[in-house]
Amino acid sequence: MKALIVGCGLGGLLIAARLVREGHSVEIFERLPIIGGRFINLDYKGYQLTTGALHMIPHGNKGPLASMLRQVGADVNIVPSSPTGVLRIPDNGSTRDISFYDFSSPLSWTNKLKLSYLTFKSRFIKPDDRSFKDWFFPFIKDPWLVKFADAFCGWALSMRSDEVSASETLAIIENMRRYGGPGVPIGGCSAIIDALEQVILSGAGTIHTNRQVDRIQTVDGRAVGVETGGETILGDLVISDIGHQATAKLYDHPATDEFRKYLIAMESARPSAGIKICLGADRPLIGHSGVLFTPYAKRVNGINEVTNVDPSLAPQGKHLIMSHQALQSDDIQSEIELGLNDLQDIFKGKEYEVLMVQTYRDGWPVNRAASGSLTNNSTPIKGLYIVGDGAKGRGGIEVEGVALGVENTLTLLNI
C-alpha cells in the first residue's frame, strides 16, 4: 500500500513510521522548509527553545507516545519527571508547595467526601455534555477546586475548566492513572522528530519539504492522490496532518447529508490558544523536573525546568525555564504582560533573563481542534484520514492525544 501524507508534524511522522515498519510505502509533503511542526527545537543564544511544545511528554516513558516510539524502533530516552508536579499555594503571607496528588488537601472534609462521591459515581454514570467545571462546581462550591482545575486544564490543554467537557477531562484523569506522569526526552522535542525521520527514511519512506499540497484528488468519493507543484501523485490512501478544516478546503465536497453533518461538526470546533514564556537563569528557579502548577497566578498555569534532567538544553551552567498560559482574550500584549508579572511574583528575588515570548493561535495554535472536539480520524471521503492535533484520541493530553489518534487511524485501516 502507498500512503500520501499531507503535513510533516508529529502526527504525520508517527503514522508514516508505523506504516513503513509494517512494510508499506509513504510519501510525505511538507509546505515548510523544516519537518516537525510545533515539536522541534529552536536554538536561541545556546538555549534549546521550541517551536511549540515544552520538552515534556505528558505520560513519560509509559504513555501512548513512548509506546509507539518503541513499536517503530525510534531510539529516544525519556526520563520520568520527579516529582510529577507540585502546586504552589499561599501560606501565611508566603507560599509553599504541595504534591500534585495532594490537590484535595485544601478542601474541607465535607468537600473531600463530595469529591470522592463524584469520582466514584463517574465510574458508573458518564457525565453529559456539560463542562468540567459545571460537573463539579454545583456540588462542590469551593474556589480552590476551580483554581486547581483551571491551572491543570490551562497547562495540559490551553483551556479553562469551563471550556473542556467533563467527559474529556475524566478520560484524561483515567489515562493519568493508567500511564502515570510526565517525562523529559533527552535532546528535547527534536530528538523524537529526528528518530522518527530516521525510521521513515531507512524504510520505504520519502519526505518532501517546501512542497505544499494544493489539491486532494477524489474519484467517486474516494481520495486517490494529491496535486503538488503542478504534479499529480497517486496513492492508495491520503492521510492529512493539517486538521479537518484545512483538509476539507483541498477537495471537492460531495452533496450528501453525511458531509453536511461533517461540516457542521467542523464549524463547531475551535483551536486552543496559549502563550509560552521562556526564561534563562544561572541557577535553578524550580529545582526539580516536574511541573510547577500555579493556580493562584493571574495567567500562568504551569512552569517546567527541563535542564534539571537534560543540561544540554541550555548553555553550560545555565537553566531553561518554560511557562505556559491559556490565552484568555484577544488583547495579546495585555495577556503577555500579565504572564510576565506572574513570573516576577513567582520568582520574586531570583535573577533570570526573559529569552522569548511565543504566542500560539490562529494558523499556529496550540491545537488545531481543542481537546474533546473532532476526535474522529475518519472523514466522509473514503481513503482520507486525519491525524495530528486536529484529531486527537480521547483523553490524550497534547502529544499523547496525537499518538492515540494515530493508533485510532491504524485501527480504521485494519493495521
Give a written overview of the molecule:
- The chain has 415 residues and is an alpha/beta fold.
- The protein folds into three domains: 206 residues, FAD/NAD(P)-binding domain; 95 residues, Polyamine Oxidase, Chain A, domain 2; 87 residues, Polyamine Oxidase, Chain A, domain 2, CATH 3.90.660.50.
- The chain is 31% helix and 23% strand.
- The protein contains eleven helices and 19 strands.
- The strands form five sheets. The protein has a seven-stranded mixed sheet with strand order 7-6-15-16-17-14-18.
- Helix 1 packs across helix 2.
- The N and C termini lie close together (11 Å).
- The mean pLDDT is 96.
- What is the CATH class name of the largest domain? Alpha Beta
**Strand content bin:** 15-25%
| Low-confidence segments | none
Strand arrangement, major sheet: 7-6-15-16-17-14-18
Profile the largest sheet: 7 strands, mixed
Structural class: alpha/beta
Mean pLDDT: 96
- Alpha-carbon distance between the two ends: 11 Å
CATH homologous superfamily heading of the largest domain: FAD/NAD(P)-binding domain
Secondary-structure element sequence?
Answer: EHEEEHEEEHHHHEHEEEEEHHEEEEHEEH
Percentage of residues in helical conformation: 25-40%
Strand segment count: 19
How many domains make up the 3D coordinates?
3
Task: Kindly list the characteristics that best describe this protein.
415 residues, alpha/beta, FAD/NAD(P)-binding domain, Polyamine Oxidase, Chain A, domain 2, 3 domains, seven-stranded mixed sheet, 11 helices, 19 strands, 23% strand
